[in-house]
Structure formats: C-alpha cells, structure tokens
Amino acid sequence: MLPSYYEFYNPVKIISGEKALDNLPYELNRLQVTRPLIITDKGVTDAGLVKTVIRAFAESGIILGGVYDDVPSDSSVTVVNDIAGVFRRNECDGLIAVGGGSPIDTAKAVNILVSEEGDNLFQFAGHDVLRRPLKPLVVIPTTAGTGSEVTYVAVIADPSRKVKMSFTSAYLYPRLAVLDPRMTLSIPPGITAATGMDALSHAMEAVTCLQKNPISDALAMASIDLIGKNLLKVVAHGRDEEARLAMSNAACLAGAAFSNSMVGLVHSLGHAAGGVAGVPHGVAMSIFLPYVFDYNMEKTAPDLARLLLPFGGPEEYANTPPAHRARRTIELIRALRQSLYDLCQLPRTLKEAEVSRDKLEAIARTAINDGSLTFNPVEVTYDDALLLLREAYD
Ligand SMILES: [Fe+2]
What we know:
Blueprint: E1 13-16, H1 24-30, E2 36-39, H2 42-46, H3 49-56, E3 66-68, H4 77-89, E4 94-99, H5 101-116, E5 126-127, E6 137-141, E7 153-158, E8 163-168, E9 176-179, H6 189-208, H7 214-236, H8 241-261, H9 265-277, H10 281-312, H11 314-319, H12 325-344, H13 360-367, H14 382-391
Parallel strand pairs: 1-9, 2-3, 2-4, 4-6, 5-8, 6-9
Antiparallel strand pairs: 7-8
C-alpha cells in the first residue's frame, strides 16, 4: 500500500566501476573545480589510496590544492576549523573526501564554513539552516557501509560543550560519489564485516521504518540482494573486485534509501552503545539487528517476510511457508552473524564487544532519547530498551 504522502530526494551523481576514478578529471571539470582539497585520514594515506586519487587527475589541468590527512575517527569543530583554514590559504575551490564516515562528515562541515565564509560552525547546526548551494564536494568512499556519500547529514563533536552537533540540509548532499573497487580492496575482514552489517541495517531498517516509501523500498531491496550475495565473499576474499564493487553499490543504495525512509531502534541502540560504551557502529548494528526485529515483529511481519526474497534468494523464499517467512528472515540474519563470527570474530553479543554489564542502564537511557526512535514502527520505553539490551548481552 502506498503511503498517503511521501517525499523522496537524492541529487547525487554516482559513478561506479572498476576504473570509475579515471573519470575524475572529467567530473571535476564539469563541476568547475580547478584546485581541490583532499580530506582524509592517516589510515587511507598509509594504504596508498590518496596517491591513487591524485594519480587519477595528475595529467589533467587540475592542480591539487592540498591534502589534509589528519581527520580523527570522531571529528571535532577544531579539526573542521583547521581544514577550513587550509582550504582558504591554498585558495581551493572544491573538496574531495576520501574515506569512511568521519572524513566525509568532516568535509561536509568544512564545506559549510568555506562556502558561507564563516568560522562558527555552531551557527549552522540543526535542520535546514543553510540557505544556498555550497562548493562542489566529491566523495570517494573507502569503506562500504555508512552510505554517507549519498546522505545530507553531518555529525561533528564539540568537545568544549560535550555535545555532538548534527547538520541536515539538502545542500549537504555531495555533488558526486565515486565507487571504485580499488578503494576498498585493502579493508581488513573485521572492518569489512562490521561496515557491511551497517549497510545491511540501513537497508533493513529502511524497509521497516515509518517513513518508508516505494522508492526507498526499491533501493533497499536491491541493496539487501547485493549484501546477501556478497558480504561473506568480501570478508573471506578481500581482493575480490567484483564483490567489493557490489558491496560499495549496496552501501550506496542503502544510504539513498535510509536517508529518505530513516532508521529506527537498531540505530538508537547503536548510537547509545557507541556513545556510552564505545562499541563501533557497525558492530553494534550487527549485535542489535535480530533482537530489534524480534521486538518490532508485531508491526513489521509482512515487511520482514518480503525481505526473505532478496536476502535468502528465490529458492529459500519459495521453500518457506508464507507464515514463517518473517521468522526465517531473522534466522538468516542470525546465521549471517554466526558466519561472520567464524570468519573474523565479529562480536555477536555486547559481552563479546567487551561492554560491561553495569553500562546497560545508561545505554537504555541514552537510546530512548535518540532521534532515530521517532521512526521505529513500534514504540519503545526505557524498560523495553533495557530488556532488549539484556537479551543482547550474552
Ligand atoms: Fe548506520
């Protein structure tokens, strides 16, 4: 059934392929960027990936405006201000983010400062504060998980006020996302597994959360199909280019889906477990996914049943009686988690993620105040959240 009203928006141009990066000069020209600043982190530089990007436009007329490769995993206002300074001193005219979620969020925030010619990021925090287009931002993801290359959100910490500021605006969408398997080939199995489960949680929550619509649904189902066929492959054989590109596409599809449908309780618990106990985001997604789907079952059984087709494949779907399909989807999520544990010890429980039991109350308290909860199909109280955390503990 169609929603009585919905909106879907995603203006990002996506280029994907085993040599997609080679088109960077053409794309930068199209965007009228002549001096791009590359924003990335040390891990990406050490893996030689920045060199690959620079090489892609070395023989064009485009001059590298600089490389800032010191973005921490939890980016802050100070880092954003530093990079904006480099951008201005080097007279850059566009940004290229190379990395996972943190460099991409950082680049989006830097773009606010350099486009608005401001130095107080706080002034632009919140929803729809920006009023005009920003400078061109190109995103080259080096993980297949967050989908940030096609989302309109940035989250930046302000340690002095002990808060995380979030920025949402249609102007924060990158102008271009480049999916090239060369950029993800060297991710170790543990991170490949965790980021892949983040993408799966985006796609699966997209199909079950309150703002879902036919377009986000179609993208999410395509994403789940690719993840079902390729996640174990890339964790077991990291150099498989075809499977890597499939996972990058899956993460991108899921990003476009969930930024319109929104995500729910899996993410509320995940944000809280990250903030309170330092559980990496993808690990938390993998831990909570089956428990939340059990919890949401009363409202989402038909959607969970539909997920079985892309996730388990046509044979699995046909061989499962309709009344058991929703349960079977959850069983297959559990089986996937077990396989990931066997391959690379991806934690299945909070205990395996080294969370101490006395933190569960604090995680539950934080989770029920998380914004994502608004979009969960079933209401959640503190007691419900705590019960769920206890189930997921060991
Ligand atoms: Fe996520």
